[in-house]
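To the team - NDP complex, inputs and output below.
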Amino acid sequence: MEILDGKKFATQIKEDVKKSVMVMTKKPMLACIIAEGDKASEIYVASKQKACAECGMLSKIVRLDSSVSQTQLENEIETLNNDTQVTAILLQLPLPKHLDEQKALNKISPQKDADCLTFFNFGKLFAGDKDFAPCTAFGIIKLLEKYNVEIEGKHAVVVGRSNLVGRSVASLLEHHNATVTLCHSKTQNLKKHTQDADILVVAVGKPKFITADFVKKGAVVIDVGINRIDGTIIGDVDFENVSKKCGKITPVPGGVGPLTVACLMRNTLFLAQHVK
Ligand code: NDP
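Output:
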């Protein structure tokens, strides 16, 4: 069994971004909007800001009160859209419950859409664009490539269908010629599907949801889950037992999480380089 070391690979991606940024006269700037103020979102935004500094990029945080109105939030996004210093905008999710997440995301200019979640960019992804995708999904594909995991012709099973993770990684896997099964909470006999997976991606948000009996011997298992239990981070996969059966697996922490942040840096650089 081989561990897919996302942390190590993330460091390499950030090093590559840094090299490109070093020769740019105008340094890219990532703006993060945080409208919740919960502890997890604060940690995520702080790690994104730290990564920007590591890559020689600029960052700014726009902190909004959790009672912010939809109109106020959209006005803030519009201000960032019009700010020529800002290269990319990230709306930290989840938003407070009274706000319409997709409506707010769609206010981000597609040219500054760091996580590829506007309908415009998401549509491009679904139409076959492999070069720009939500950071987590993009990172997973890059990790598979890094570890020489063959995707073409394989059966990839994705559990979870959020735009942020499941649906976008399923689309990318299909673009790389996998045969893809996308499972969700209404899927019947989930185990029947997962047991047939050569590549199994799990993004459900339930600790140790996937146990060894869900996994085919020798499969490649990507655990996206981040579940905070009593101060510890636990994945969606029962690592201890699944790792004895599968061929390759991502750990939690140290797997997909660091890659998401590194690919956010990559996406910000991509927008700086490709959008005029
Ligand atoms: P969502 O809550 O948006 O989506 C969860 C998905 O899981 C839904 O599609 C849901 O189905 C499906 N699901 C729920 N219960 C079951 C079940 N019993 N059987 C099959 N499918 C089920 O979560 P996210 O996609 O945003 O995140 C998933 C996990 O990944 C979370 O732990 C999150 O913290 C983590 N995450 C990690 C990142 C990283 O960088 N490592 C980045 C982003 C997320 P349905 O659509 O039918 O409701």
